[in-house]
Design a protein that fits this description.
The chain has 477 residues and is of the alpha/beta class. The protein is built from 17 helices and eleven strands. The chain folds into three domains: 2-150, no CATH class; 156-277, NAD(P)-binding Rossmann-like Domain (Rossmann fold, 3-Layer(aba) Sandwich); 284-473, no CATH class. Mean pLDDT is 85; it is low at 266-271.
């Protein structure tokens, strides 16, 4: 079933890609004809022959690839089965405006025209042509998708959590009308609940602790938390921690506090309001920019600091036996393991008795290692991890699995850090610094959670600036 779901998504993605390429190609060709007929006629007094040479086709290919890239970084190809015509309309206007302005400076500004006001006309014409074709084709495909959902050809497997009156009420309303495509396949029970009434309607799938396996086995796409308001204090945090790391949409009945704080995106099942818990940390565009900046900064710094790294490599070899670099397994995004790269600052075999955190005046640290740690120079090779894609420059510090499990035992919400790539530096490192024990790691964790929930490129810049100050002040350990 999982492979079928992936095939359906890839098929839908291919449809949107093909239609966007077709609309971009037709638009650019028509714009080419417009420039020939009007701009060139005003300039020369006659229309030159319409030469369909290789440059025109190269332009069509380049422009089409540009539009696809713009759509990708703006998140156009996310949630392809959950689109609306109104959202298509607004997104296409915004994307067309941004793209046309960019094309103007790259491909139109060098046009020789009799009057500068013609530039405004060219931009307006290209915008109208491109928007019209793109939205029209998207409208047809989105309308077809909506009809398939209403007819039951496309559906979203959904489970309920809880057995309260709210769960039964939501189930009855979804069953009554399936125009949104939700099919309830079962429910997850809570520890102090009686499942008798809900069991009469839908299957009992298991307990909350089994939910990750159930979601994976049943290919669940949506989870509705159907608990009463007086149960939220006891269960909501546990439920969200159990759902962390699962690729599902999560919805819940709102309370007044949720609505006033504006933390959630409002949706609706008919007259039963539900709120969608927002798990999108940053837009696709911002994530793309963040990745590009990671690559540029990391590559530049590695080149600039290459002489220093060579010099430090010699000092490390002269100071103590062992390799120059130290590779250690850490947990990254989605708990994927990777090897973090650092300059060696400890004597070899420093953890023969098991994993240990660094403490003040740690005797395992070499003479040169003390200075490398003080100014955090030992972390320079981690820019290689950034280039490889294991890490980002800014993000929560990655931990070893041994310590991560110990943290989760006391703070289950630690799983939230797996939503993003770990970083060379973090808000937790800036505000708290290195941790010498599990309790300190948990105290530092709250700063990383704050960062994750408020991720922006500006916040990344702030963390980097504070980190530079810490490095110059020698406040490492």
């Amino acid at each position: 079933m999982a492979s079928t779901k992936l095939k359906n998504y890839n098929r839908q993605l291919l449809k949107y890609l093909l239609l966007d390429i077709i609309s971009a190609s037709i638009s650019w060709f028509l714009f080419f004809l417009y420039r020939k007929k009007f701009v060139e006629f005003d300039k020369l007094g006659y229309i030159n022959s319409f030469n369909l040479d290789i440059r025109l086709f190269e332009g069509i290919i380049f422009i089409s690839l540009f539009w696809i890239f713009l759509y990708y970084i703006s998140g156009e190809y996310n949630n392809l089965f959950r689109r609306s015509r109104l959202k298509d309309f607004t997104n296409t206007i915004f994307q067309s405006l941004i793209g046309v302005i960019f094309i103007f400076f790259i491909a139109i500004l060098d046009d020789i025209i009799p009057n500068y006001k013609e530039y405004y006309t060219l931009v307006l014409v290209l915008f109208i042509i491109h928007f019209s074709f793109t939205f029209f084709l998207r409208y047809i495909l989105t309308l077809n998708t909506i009809n398939n959902i209403r007819n039951g050809k496309i559906f979203f497997k959904t489970i309920l959590i809880g057995n309260s009156d709210s769960a039964i009420e939501i189930y009855n309303k979804i069953k009554l009308k399936k125009s949104l495509g939700n099919i309830i396949v079962g429910f997850i029970g809570l520890s102090d609940s009686n499942y008798h009434n809900l069991k009469k309607k839908i299957p009992y799938l298991g307990s909350l602790k089994e939910i990750s396996k159930i979601i994976k086995h049943k290919n669940i796409e949506e989870v509705i938390i159907a608990i009463e308001r007086n149960q939220q204090d006891n269960y909501l945090e546990e439920i969200l921690n159990c759902l962390e790391g699962t690729d599902v949409i999560i919805k819940i009945k709102p309370n007044n506090y949720d609505l006033l704080m504006g933390r959630v995106k409002m949706t609706s099942f008919f007259d039963e309001p539900l709120i969608q818990i927002r798990y999108v940390l940053m837009s696709q565009f911002n994530f793309t920019v963040k990745r590009i900046l990671d690559l540029i900064i990391s590559s530049t710094l590695l080149i600039l600091f290459l002489p220093l790294l060579l010099f430090l490599s010699i000092l490390i070899k002269l100071d103590s036996k062992g390799s120059i670099f130290y590779l250690q397994e850490r947990l990254g995004k989605n708990e994927i393991k990777f090897k973090i790269i650092k300059l060696r600052t400890m004597f070899i075999d420093s953890e023969l008795n098991g994993p240990r955190l660094t403490v003040d005046k740690d005797k395992r640290i070499t003479k040169i290692g003390k200075y490398l740690r003080k100014y955090r120079i030992d972390e320079l090779p981690q820019f290689i991890n950034v280039i490889k894609g294991d890490m980002s420059i800014v993000g929560p510090r990655p931990e070893r699995e041994f310590f991560a499990k110990k943290i989760i035992e006391k703070a289950p919400y630690y799983k939230h850090v797996y939503r993003v790539k770990p970083g060379i530096t973090s808000w937790g490192m800036v505000k708290f610094g290195y941790a010498s024990n599990i309790s300190e790691m948990i105290k530092r964790l709250k700063y990383d959670i704050i960062y994750i929930e408020n991720m922006t490129l500006i916040s990344d810049l702030k963390v980097i600036i504070y980190t530079i100050l810490i490095v110059f002040q020698g406040r490492g350990k």
